Amino acid sequence: MDKQQAYKDKVKAEINEHAAKLAAFKAKLKSEAADVKSSSIEKIDALEQKLSQAKDRLTDIGEVAEESWESVKNRLEEARNDVSKSIKTFFEDDENKQKKQ
Q1: Any idea which of 6-10, 14-18, 19-23, 59-63 has the lowest mean pLDDT?
Q2: Do 15 and 55 meet the contact criterion of CB atoms below 8 Å apart?
Q3: Dihedral of alpha carbons 29, 14, 93, 45, sign
């Protein structure tokens, strides 16, 4: 497996992991109060949009020439970091809310 494919596989696995976490959290919300649920659902929807955009970038990569690989990889890395940071913040915020209750 070449380094490009290994990187794509790594990013795809990370995106799938984030999607699974969001789906599990969304399922957990079914028992929450309507106001809490509504606010969280809006945030989750925005995070799912970011995940979708990251998936699109990953799909768009396809086969790129070696000289453009680093450029494409850098753009994907930015999207991946943005998604990871956003999801981490979302779950940290939720955890802090839970502690306050």
Answers
A1: 59-63
A2: yes
A3: negative
